[in-house]
Write a structure and sequence with these properties.
114 residues; alpha+beta; PLC-like_Pdiesterase_TIM-brl; PI-PLC_domain; PI-PLC X domain-containing protein 1
């Protein structure tokens, strides 16, 4: 594992930059990196637990463009596939998955140099 000191980065940083659009749908699971107890509480007591989960999980209120326009130059993005999702879609997440999926661009065409 590579350890990197983020303090050497100049400029503004955005922690969990995509949390402005977390999925508020009750069907969206808590991500699997969360403690098992939280996952169980969320499964069986969702109406009681979810407001606390959202309060903790949402760290940004502004879309990425607005964050960049405000001077942010480093974005913390967490990406994962939703559990029990048979598609190949990847989503941003922080405690709960976002409504935005990750758009994967195809690699550039391979060129040969002589």
């Amino acid at each position: 594992m590579m350890i990197f000191d983020v303090n050497v980065l100049g400029g503004h940083r955005s922690h969990n930059a995509i949390t402005y659009c977390l999925d508020m749908d009750a069907g969206s699971p808590v991500d699997l990196t969360q403690p098992e107890l939280l996952q169980k509480l969320d499964r069986y007591m969702k109406p009681l637990i979810r407001p606390f989960v959202y309060k903790w999980a949402i760290t940004q209120e502004n879309p990425i463009k607005q964050q960049l326009d405000s001077g942010v130059r480093y974005c913390d993005l967490r990406i994962a596939q939703r559990p029990n999702d048979s598609s190949t879609e990847l989503y941003f997440y922080h405690g709960v998955y976002s409504t935005l999926s990750v758009e994967v661009s195809p690699p550039p065409p391979h060129t040969h140099t002589q």
